[in-house]
Design goal:
single chain, 276 residues, alpha/beta, TIM Barrel, eight-stranded parallel beta barrel, 8 strands, Xyl_isomerase-like_TIM-brl, Fructoselysine 3-epimerase
Length: 276
Amino acid sequence: MLLGMFTSGYQRNPLEHCFEDAKRFGYDFIELWGGRPHAYAPDLKAGEIEEVKRLIDKYEMPVLGYTPEHNAYPYNFMIGTELQRQDAVAYLKICLDMAKEMNSEFMLISTAHAGYLATYEEIWERLRTTIRELTDYAEKTGVKLIVEPLTPYETNVIKNANDLMELFKQIDSPFLVGMCDIVAPFVQHESIMAYIEKLGKKIHHMHIIDGEQGTENHIVPGDGAIPLPELFKELKESGYEKTVTLELVTGYINEPRLYTRRVIDTIRKYMKEAGF
């Protein structure tokens, strides 16, 4: 099982710190956050991709996943006018191009909030249209498109394993796959391991971190309420061997280097105990 570092918590640090620390702390890959000042796709397209490639080579640290910022200002393909939706899709196509340039295996997207007045019919019509366009483009680039369910605190669209299953039923492509951020099922009283059983070959990635009920906060392992040592034992028995990102986001933005080290040290211990 390969362990990745998520870089959004480093946005007040130089991008090179992400690659340097991933190498120093023993991560296997980087899941690169695509926002300024580090890896915003239009900036990469304008030439800054060369710096990312330099860091990949210097630290021998692949960017297996690219996760562009698109659930806040100014992009959200689930809300606003058709012009705004098309603008978000055009942006995400640039992101797919940049993921290909970095030799990324996947690009990760999620669905932001569709607004309080949107009906299920309106939500799913807009979702189908958008994901179909992005999947068609992903097939051309050769980069897998991973859809991440979020918590109900963040979205009213794709929130759980059943939502993913319905999406895959409506759009069938080997380049459209899913994942599990374990905080999402945990705070919804849904089974984490049910994702693996329900999605089968369609589960391509995981975000593992600690959490607690009543919030979408991502917490350093051991400081929350998710039984992580037991989860790794279950993952081992299930045969899960795909990628995992240890997803610290911005809750530790003041000291990302300290907490990023602590996270992988703790998770490696859990993995050893589980027999990985």
